[in-house]
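Hey, quick one: can you model this chain's 3D structure?
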Amino acid sequence: MSQGPARYEIVIGKGFAVDLMRLAAAAEKDPRGPDGYLHRQVLRQIGDLAEGVADGRHALGYESGKGDLRDCVTAYLQSDPQAKADYRLVFREMPPEGPGGIPRRELLAVKPRQGAGNIYEHTCARLNRNPHDRQPGLNAFGDRMPSLKQNQAQRQAELDAKRAVAHAFPGQVPLATSRPLAAAQFGARRADSPSQPGQSLDR
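Sure thing. Here's the predicted structure for all 203 residues.
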């Protein structure tokens, strides 16, 4: 995929930066194995999110034990191109930093979907949210049933609607530790990584 102009400013927090460094270190040891493949998928996903080529897989909601993530979106990633997606990247949409700027996407975590220290646990911790509590300030995003089954068109419509809310929501600001990630930091590395076909990404 060619590198196009950025439609979104990518912002990453300290926690996501640590996730990325760990993935890069693992990929360096095993560039042709699952770790290398996963790292390339993450870099490609970041680039696609910046260009607006990707909007994530689906919006998240509230579920006791997993937390209130109604302002968040998850993207699916595979460590094995022949298996179902076993990793998730969670991010938030938000308005531009100032007049004339482009909207921002804050990357919060990239972790395994399941198991101890899974993606949702880390995301809540990084947002300083109790995994059992609702966040009243997120009522503007509405409610979403965790088990909701949607087709692609329905998922995209929900993503579009929640993005519109996020871009108009004054409370949607990056974490204090978050900083912009320049496209040059990941674009060159993903440009020479051809896409590989994968299997179904069903949750």
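One thing worth noting: Residues 186-203 have pLDDT under 50 and may be disordered.
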